[in-house]
Design brief:
single chain; alpha/beta; Rossmann fold; 7-stranded antiparallel β-sheet; 7-stranded mixed β-sheet; 34% strand; binds flavin-adenine dinucleotide; binds FE2/S2 (inorganic) cluster
């Protein structure tokens, strides 16, 4: 679906991290299941030519009105996101989405462990909201380099999610990586938990390995570089396992994902 959205707000919530709210259609909100993403034309001209992909952080109805909206959280990483941070209220943005396949809740039993690294937190809020609706125990493990890389935890807490934090410089929560706070918890799950993770590739590889060691189901949301976002250019493929001679040995992140069962990916070849 392609929509022309009106920018409702664009606020820096922590140094280099922004939250943008855009109008949506009711149909968009219905289709925006947790983990799906949008492709946004960042500038007002054709430069940069390619849209940039962002997870849908939240959807809702504007307070006191009937207009549907969605939020993205983004980190200023380069040209596209820097341009996005200059966009102002009431400007129009060209959006494709919601795209891709999001998190599967078919394994929804036991404890739900959400693991986010930095901006990888973005797709996990909508997921936490959905899991809350099923009345499932949900914990969030989040990591970043320092306290500026940790945000929006109050919004997870409002959903009843228990949040645990690790920062590499020790400025918030425990000093270390997110896996350092996840490991002790995994020991207590007795194999009755599902992991949902999004963050840098190294973190995802480590989390997938831990899940395999503890025989836990694990879904990972990947952030490959994308050009078309709709399965045409094959610019986003990652190595996957061939389940049968007919199955390809790669996965298209935009169309087959961005969320995958961690066992479907060939982590050795992604190095
Ligand atoms: C499905 C999906 C969902 C995403 N959701 C979010 C989100 O919710 N919030 C958010 O901030 N970002 C998200 N990203 C990443 C985001 O799309 C990129 O950061 C953005 O496209 C960078 O554009 P840019 O023009 O600012 O940077 P560029 O000028 O294109 O690149 C700047 C630097 O960032 C690196 N880079 C660019 N894209 C990526 C990437 N995908 N992964 C790793 N490094 C990259 C480049 O190598 C370069 O070093 C998502 C990516 C995908 C595929
Ligand atoms: S970005 Fe073009 S196929 Fe995925």
């Amino acid at each position: 679906m392609r929509i022309e959205s009106t920018l409702l707000s664009n606020v820096e919530i922590s140094p280099s991290y922004w939250r943008m709210r855009l109008t949506a259609t009711d149909e968009f909100v219905r289709q925006a299941s947790p983990g799906r993403f949008v492709m946004i034309q960042a500038g007002k001209s054709i430069d940069p030519l390619l849209r940039r992909p962002f997870a849908v952080f939240e959807t809702g109805i504007v307070f006191g009105g009937s207009t549907a909206y969605f939020d993205i959280l983004y980190r200023v990483a380069g040209k596209g996101t820097a341009l996005l941070s200059t966009r102002r209220e009431n400007e129009m943005l060209d959006i494709l989405g919601p795209l891709g396949k999001g998190f599967s809740l078919s394994h929804a039993a036991g404890e739900h462990l959400l693991v986010g690294g930095g901006i990888g937190l973005a797709p996990l809020h909508a997921l936490a909201k959905k899991l809350g609706g099923y009345d499932l125990a949900t914990r969030l493990f989040v990591g970043g380099r320092g306290r500026n890389d940790i945000f929006c935890l109050d919004e997870f807490e409002m959903l009843g999610v228990e949040c645990r934090v690790a920062t590499e410089d020790g400025s918030l929560g425990e000093r270390g990586r997110v896996t350092d706070i996840l490991i002790p918890h995994l020991e207590s799950t007795n194999g009755n938990a599902t992991i949902y993770a999004c963050g840098p590739e190294g973190m995802l590889r480590a989390v997938a390995k831990l899940a395999a060691e503890h025989r836990l189901s694990c879904q990972v949301s990947l952030e490959s570089r994308m050009a078309c976002g709709i399965g045409v250019c094959l610019g986003c493929v990652v190595p996957g396992h061939r389940h049968s001679p007919e199955t390809p040995d790669f996965r298209c992140v935009c169309a087959d994902g961005p969320v995958f069962d961690s066992n479907d990916l060939d982590w050795e070849k992604t190095r």
